Amino acid sequence: MNLKYLFWAPVISIVLGALLETTQHILSQTRSSNYLDFLANVAGIAAATICYAFFISGKKWETVF
């Protein structure tokens, strides 16, 4: 996988997560927006990106460190 995808996929996911939380705050009367939910989204995206970079992409550990 190209390095630009490893950058753009998490960035787009974080933007969509922020948009989701903002939309919940503006449009819904039964759901609430919370910055901790957004931080949980960001933590999940970071964990997925790190797991992909280290375990799935097929790179050797020696080239990473």
Oligomer: single chain
- Mean pLDDT equals 83
Structural class from helices and strands?
Answer: mainly alpha
Q: How many β strands by DSSP?
A: 0
Q: Radius of gyration, Cα only, in angstroms? A: 15 Å
* Tally of helical runs: 3
Distance between the termini: 19 Å
Order of helices and strands: HHH
Q: State the helical fraction.
A: over 70%
Shape: elongated
* Main beta sheet strand tally, sense and closure: none
Strand proportion: under 5%
Unreliable stretches? none
Question: Could you explain how this protein is built, in words?
Answer:
The protein is an all-alpha fold. The chain has 3 helices and no strands. The protein has helices spanning 3-27, 35-56, 61-64.
Question: Descriptors for this entry?
Answer:
65 residues; mainly alpha
Give a brief description.
This protein has 65 residues and is mainly alpha-helical.
List the topology elements.
Elements lengths: L2 H25 L7 H22 L4 H4 L1
Helix pairs in contact: 1-2
